[in-house]
Amino acid sequence: MLTAIGRAGVLGINRRNGDFVMRYNKRSLYPLVDDKLITKKLAQENGIPVPQLFGSLDTPRDIPSLNDLVAQQQSFVVKPSHGSGGDGIVVIDSHRGRRFWTCGGSVLLWAELAHHLENTLGGQYSLGGHPDRVMVEYRVKFDPMFNPVSYLGVPDIRIIVFLGFPVMAMLRLPTRRSGGKANLHQGAVGAGIDIAYGKTVHGVIGNNNTDEHPDTGAAIGGLEVPYWQQMLSIAARCYEMTGLGYLGVDLVLDEHLGPLMLELNARPGLNIQIANAAGLLPRLEYVQQHAEPALLPEDRVAWIQSLVNDRTAGWQSG
């Protein structure tokens, strides 16, 4: 007998791993998304827009070269190449001499920043604790439309792509509790997005519904994400780029540069279902049974969007 969760079409972690991640994602392809430096190079080769890389630090001996990499940049970001969940990322809003101001207003002395970089290289934030590299890249200046629903950090959009078809999306909004990071596990707001129209439909913090941002009081629902078609197209193209059949694509919307692909995930989390108040399983199964795999990315996007009002396909928002 089906449980209530099963009847709702909610995809659990065991079935995600067994029926989708292990079946459609070859282990040999994981480095393409687990190493953010490799992902960025691959995206650039495939014409997918990403934040500019100023350079990388590969060993502790490279740490002093940070000053040269950012000499012409007022702001920048340092992040571990193998990090996850936003850990180890430091966003520098401005710097002068041996002082660095973060986006939260705190001051880091050079010795403090250098110590953080050394820890990052040593693997403190990497998957498995292995030695890592540090990426030094452009600081995204998020679109002003997100000002009312974001605290300090940069909101991002997660899109689940299955066999090249975008099947579910959400907007992740930083909060005071999340420390300005767009990470749901740390307290960010998740807002489900209508896949056809790019409009937010439902908000959650943890497992609790919310209609407004906890810090600003602004409404979560009804936000129209700019450049939505372009974002869906970028997400769909990541299937050909990586060869991964089950994929999480994270994008940001820069005020000046438009949509940018931030990173990819071969084992994307399942909280996106809570944010959308809808299960992933009916959508994944429908793609398995009815999708035409030879379609071009733009045609795959169009096919998915055509299903939104088809009540027999299981694409309703819950």
Description:
The protein has 318 residues and is of the alpha+beta class. It has 2 domains: 4-34 and 143-306, ATP-grasp fold, B domain (D-amino Acid Aminotransferase, Chain A, domain 1); 52-137, 2-Layer Sandwich (Dna Ligase, domain 1), CATH 3.30.1490. The chain has 10 helices and 13 strands. It has helices at 4-7, 13-24, 31-34, 36-45, 66-69, 110-121, 228-242, 272-276, 281-290, 297-306; strands spanning 53-57, 76-80, 90-96, 99-102, 107-109, 134-137, 156-162, 165-173, 189-194, 199-205, 208-209, 246-254, 258-265. The strands form 2 sheets. The protein has a 7-stranded antiparallel β-sheet. Strands 1-6-2-3-4-5 form a 6-stranded antiparallel β-sheet, sandwiched between helices. Strand 7 and strand 8 (165-173) form a beta hairpin. Helix 7 (228-242) packs across helix 10 (297-306). The radius of gyration is 20 Å and the shape is globular.
